[in-house]
Amino acid sequence: MQVTELSFSSLSEYLQFCPLKYYFRKVLHLEPEFLSAEMIYGSGFHKAVEAYFRAKMENKTVSADELMVLFCKSFEDPKIRYNGQGKQEMADEAFVLLKLVMDLPIGRILAVEQPITIPIAKDFQIIGYIDLLTEENDGKRIITDWKTCKKRPNPDDVAQNMQLSTYNLAYPDAELRIAAVLKQKKPAVEFYPTSRTYDQRKRTVKTFIAVKQSIEAGQWYPREGWWCEGCQYQAQCTKEY
Questions:
Q1: What is the pTM of this model?
Q2: What CATH number should be reported for the domain holding residue 57?
Q3: What confidence score (pLDDT) does residue 137 get?
Q4: Are 165 and 176 in contact (CB under 8 A)?
C-alpha cells in the first residue's frame, strides 16, 4: 500500500497560493524560471539560524562570521532575481539580525529541525520539521518557528497560523510561538506566542485531508493574487491558461 505524505509547505502551496503552481513544481517537477532573492534570503537565514542552535545544543562555539558563510552560499545560483536590495546589502542586514538572534535568551535546546510524522490514516501521513524545540526552567516545552519579515505579524495571522497548528498535532502540550526576524530600519527579533485547542487541531487534520483529496483528483487551477507577480512559473502558467 502506497502511503501519501503531505507537508505543511505542500499544503500551503496548494491551498494558500496556487494549485497550478503546486502542479508545476511538485507533480511535473519543472525548473523555476527564476529564484526570488527574498525567498533565498529567508532560506539562507534559516540555515544560519539552524547551524547556530545546533552548535549551541552540542555545546560548540560558532561565530556570526562563520554563520554568514552559510547565508551567502545561498546566493550563488545565477537564476536569482533581485528586487531593490542587492546581495551585499542583504548580507549586511542579515549579519545585524543574526547577531540579535544570537543574543536571545533561549531555554534548554531539545531539538533543531526536529522531524515529525503524524499518521492520519493507513495511507496518509503528515510530515515536517520543527525549527526549534526548547524546554524552559518550569518544564514547559516551546516550539519556535522562525520567520524573516518586513512587517510585524498580525495577531489574527499568528492565532490561525497553519504551520504552528501542524506542529501542534505532533506536540499538543507544547507552547507555540513565531520568532519574527524584522527587516526594518530598526532591526528586531520579536516573539509572538499562541496556542491551539483540540477543535483547531481537528480542523487542521480535516484541511490536510481535503487538500490530499483535491490533489489526488487532479484539481489544478490558477489562483490569482499578489503572489502571481513573484511566481517562478509565469510563462508556463500563461501557456497553460
A1: 0.91
A2: 3.90.320.10
A3: 84
A4: no
